């Protein structure tokens, strides 16, 4: 299933936050979204997930969700949102409860998703016994348990230290190679955007408009080894963001 954003515009209390956004997230691809603080990235993600309705335009789901999909649009948050009293397996099972599945079916799906995310050995651990990186891996496993059509990831690595972020980026690449998941990935971190994005959309300052969409052709599995070539894309992203920041400063100076 592809996601298509068409002419999406939204206004909060008379102040536009997103304007005429057109974007496409083809099935099996990762779209990263970067932009200045407050430009509406999280708002866009909420609109993609149907948590809020845009004032104009639409988010279209094109095609069929994957077989066995229980929740087409599934969020992953930066704070992991795990229940501290539940084990790893219990947290993953949480996403499957209230979905008319029998106990045996839930157990089967939990076992399968823990194996796919290399977490089987930690199934009985509690969140407090895990590092931040491991907790986020559990949150990712929980999201995958519902066989989403598109993962909506809001700065999923930003609560982690730099080393853990690197490891988790490798992990996400490995997972993408195995699963080919579809994602919209919001981040402030340009290095993450060029490591993980097949495309990177740059939003302007508020109201967020699509300033540019950069295509990165390099296969994800080669990116860790070919950082110098990625640096060109990162510089381009930085240049666009710097222009936005400079324009915002200029507007303030003109007031
Ligand atoms: N429910 C709401 N009601 C009114 N204003 C809101 C609401 N949610 C967000 N905003 C405002 O809309 C703007 C965009 O917010 P949003 O969180 O989407 O931006 P962002 O790009 O994700 O920001 P950041 O990069 O800082 O996380 C901000 O000015 C914010 O204060």
Automatic annotation (TrEMBL):
Q: Which Gene3D superfamilies match?
A: P-loop containing nucleotide triphosphate hydrolases (3.40.50.300)
Question: Per the database record, which ranges form the ABC transporter domain?
Answer: 3-230
Q: Name one GO molecular function term.
A: ATP hydrolysis activity
Query: What is the designated name of this protein?
Result: NitT/TauT family transport system ATP-binding protein
Pfam families attached to this UniProt entry: ABC_tran
- Tell me yes or no: is Nucleotide-binding among this UniProt entry's keywords: yes
Alphabetical UniProt keywords: ATP-binding, Nucleotide-binding, Transport
Q: Report the sequence similarity comment from the record.
A: Belongs to the ABC transporter superfamily.
What's the domain of life for this entry? Bacteria
Query: What is the source species?
Result: Oceanicella actignis
């Amino acid at each position: 299933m592809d996601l298509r954003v068409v002419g999406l515009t939204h206004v909060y209390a008379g102040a536009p936050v997103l304007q005429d956004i057109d974007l496409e997230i083809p099935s099996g691809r990762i779209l990263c979204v970067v932009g200045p603080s407050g430009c509406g990235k999280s708002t866009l993600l909420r609109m993609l997930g149907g948590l809020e309705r845009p004032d104009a335009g639409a988010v279209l789901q094109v095609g069929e969700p994957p077989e066995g999909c229980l929740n087409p649009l599934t969020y992953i948050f930066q704070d992991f949102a795990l229940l501290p009293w539940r084990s790893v397996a219990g947290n993953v099972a949480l996403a499957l409860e209230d979905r008319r599945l029998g106990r045996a079916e839930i157990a089967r799906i939990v076992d399968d998703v823990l194996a796919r995310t290399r977490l089987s050995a930690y199934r009985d651990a509690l969140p407090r016994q895990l590092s931040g990186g491991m907790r986020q891996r559990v949150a990712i496993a929980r999201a995958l348990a519902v066989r989403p059509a598109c993962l909506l990831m809001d700065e999923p690595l930003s609560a982690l230290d730099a080393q853990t972020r690197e490891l988790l980026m490798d992990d996400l690449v490995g997972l993408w190679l195995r699963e080919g998941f579809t994602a919209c990935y919001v981040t402030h971190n340009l290095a993450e955007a060029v490591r993980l994005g097949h495309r990177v959309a740059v939003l302007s300052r508020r109201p967020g408009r699509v300033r540019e969409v950069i295509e990165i052709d390099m296969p994800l599995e080669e990116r860790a080894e070919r950082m110098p070539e990625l640096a060109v894309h990162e510089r381009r992203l930085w240049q666009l963001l710097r222009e936005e920041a400079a324009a915002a400063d200029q507007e303030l100076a003109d007031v």
